[in-house]
Amino acid sequence: MRESLKREAEARMPTEWGDFNMIAYKSETSDYTPHLAILHPDMDVNQSVMVRIHSECITGDLFHSQRCDCGKQLHIALDYVQKEKGLLIYLRQEGRGIGIVNKLKAYNKQDEGLDTVEANIALGLEIDYRHYEMALEILTDLGISKIRLLTNNPEKIEVFEKSKIELVERVALEIEATENSKKYLQTKKETLGHILKL
Hints:
Blueprint: E1 6-15, E2 18-26, E3 35-39, E4 49-55, H1 58-62, H2 70-84, E5 87-91, H3 94-97, H4 99-111, H5 116-122, H6 133-141, E6 146-150, H7 154-161, E7 166-171, H8 182-190
Helix pairs in contact: 4-5
């Protein structure tokens, strides 16, 4: 059974998007990849808070990979958090939860012609290992009861339909497809049911 999260550290973090506070949440003291809450210092928990739940993507977030839309989504989300005095929850579940090693193996399968779902299956993996209960714990710890959720993912919406936190509005976060990301985004829409226009 997964241990509940607890705050381990908090600090001010000035960025190119503006000043934020970062809080690290860990379930075990030995965990060196804690989940993170990145929030505007003037966030008002008595209002409906703009929230982005973002799963870690080393390739997209850090190295700006063209295979996905993750890095661009992260940057636009930080713009929203700054303008709307909101919150970004950064969950450490790389590659839909398969980890960076398997993600690179999946990239090779994709280069052979498989889409992201088919690549995971070919490697004997689940399509998506991610879960979002940790985000609910973080929101509860921060005293947030109403949110506007920045997402295209129906699974994230469903999490809140079954929780005590009220989802007031879904805000779309669609990134224009490129030659390198087109198949990835089509798979998100057609196979995983993401709410995308493309």
